[in-house]
Amino acid sequence: xxxxxxxxxxxxxxxxxxxxxxxxxxxxxxxxxxxxxxxxxxxxxxxxxxxxxxxxxxxxxxxxxxxxxxxxxxxxxxxxxxxxxxxxxxxxxxxxxxxxxxxxxxxxxxxxxxxxxxxxxxxxxxxxxxxxxxxxxxxxxxxxxxxxxxxxxxxxxxxxxxxxxxxxxxxxxxxxxxxxxxxxxxxxxxx
Length: 191
Hints:
The protein is of the alpha+beta class. The chain has helices at 9-18, 60-68, 89-99, 123-127, 171-183, and strands at residues 24-31, 35-36, 73-78, 83-88, 107-109, 113-118, 134-136, 142-145, 152-155, 158-159, 164-165. The strands form three sheets. It has a five-stranded antiparallel sheet with strand order 7-4-6-5-9. A four-stranded antiparallel sheet has the order 2-1-3-8. Strands 10-11 form a two-stranded antiparallel sheet. β5 and β6 (113-118) form a beta hairpin. α1 (9-18) runs antiparallel to α2 (60-68) and α3 packs across α5. The longest helix is centred in the last third of the chain and has 13 residues, at 171-183. It is globular, with a radius of gyration of 16 Å.
């Protein structure tokens, strides 16, 4: 089995489409020393957010064609098949370490955030009343995927040796780890 290189846009798009069956779009482009093609000179995520006019693709060849005509464009996944829990980076790293005790959890790291993928419609359990956490969920939610500018996988959403999707945890598992971190005590594994 050939390993998928998520640093190569064509390989990454093919993996996300065929292994995970995620609906994808091509986002704005990041241009070195020029910023994001969205036109906002202060864009906080250059080349790593969706364009309003970008179609949603389910076939990898369509995404690959679109990426070929837009070098440096972000690769966007719509959160129909998972929820994305975005945490400030220091907190997110601590939660990832705590979650690694029970399972490998697909997570994306950026300069400011850690985005943890959980089962669909369960991200709200991780958010609860926490103001510093954002949940993206449903067909209108989105995340920027590697190799979008400034993103990288900490833990891939598939098992590299077999290319089978990783089993997602429930958002309550993230919530329990957050509670444990705030209390400073060891976490009980989810059952």
